[in-house]
Write a structure and sequence with these properties.
80% helix
């Protein structure tokens, strides 16, 4: 019996890892698609659109708009693929009670996890940056690509397509495979670790692991992957809002930081207490 259980666990790990590798390969496919489409557009328009020609020339050099386009295409491909894998899992509760899943208390937990979590992680990153700024070179470069210009395509990716895609991949298809063979907390930790590795940066990966654990807890509590999507979108949106606030007066800046951190930290701690506590928790195997 124990030997059979080991086989089940090994197969679950392999399936989850193959999905992870598939998502990485999806980015390569998205790159090829974008190059083909861009090349076709250049050939079709000829010299009428110099911007497209310049983008094609700079594609291998990491053109900002081109790379964001690749990320968008890759995320959309992942949504269709992992969304299909997620929907095919047959261990969920059906029919699903959305009113119970998104009751007032759970909505408050979703907001506290997304908004409060972003505030807490942002302040922790600020403190770490003060102590070791050298660790943030790659992180700053990545964040710069996602914030410079704040074009509609970037906002669409960061605030909607990206979160939806990542939830379907990690808290959806991958977590489903792991949770069939492992206890929840172990399965949740494994998917969060893969989520951190996916970001390919120590700093971004570290808080992605923490965020992944919180989003996994949200899915367990509500039974719905839509809860994680909502919290993830709120997290990214809050990050954009915080990044856009500038206060010149040093005194007022400190006062605002204390107030924001106090409110955000309190909301996050209350949300975590609800997510970790057993009171009012839904069945672990339930999902829409």
């Amino acid at each position: 019996m124990e030997e059979n259980w080991k086989v089940v666990r090994n197969r679950s790990c392999i399936r989850a890892f193959m999905i992870f590798i598939g998502v990485i390969l999806m980015q390569m496919l998205a790159y090829i698609i974008c190059v083909v489409v861009l090349t076709g557009a250049v050939l079709l328009l000829g010299e009428k659109n110099s911007k497209l020609q310049q983008m094609l020339i700079q594609a291998n050099a990491g053109n900002h708009t081109f790379m964001i386009s690749v990320s968008v295409v890759s995320a959309i491909l992942s949504i269709f693929w992992c969304g299909t894998l997620y929907r095919r899992s047959d261990w969920r509760e059906r029919p699903f009670d959305y009113k119970k899943a998104f009751c007032g208390k759970n909505v408050a937990v979703i907001i506290g996890s997304g908004v409060g979590g972003c505030i807490v992680f942002s302040f922790l990153l600020t403190g770490l940056y003060t102590l070791a700024p050298g660790l943030f070179s790659l992180y700053n470069e990545t964040m710069g690509r996602l914030t410079d210009g704040s074009t509609p395509l970037v906002l669409l990716y960061v605030l909607l397509i990206g979160p939806v895609s990542e939830e379907l991949v990690f808290r959806g298809a991958i977590m489903d495979r792991l949770y069939l063979a492992f206890p929840f907390y172990l399965a949740n930790g494994m998917q969060a670790l893969l989520f951190g590795i996916y970001h390919l940066d120590w700093i971004q990966g570290a808080y992605a692991v923490c965020l992944g654990i919180v989003l996994g807890l949200l899915r367990r509590k509500t039974g719905s992957i839509f809860a994680g999507m909502a919290a993830h979108i709120l997290f990214n949106t809050t990050s954009y809002v915080l990044g856009g606030i500038t206060i010149e007066n040093p005194t007022w800046r400190i006062v605002c930081m204390v107030i924001v951190f106090g409110l955000g930290g309190s909301a996050f701690l209350l949300s975590m207490g609800s997510l970790i506590g057993k009171k009012g928790e839904r069945k672990e195997t339930s999902a829409e």
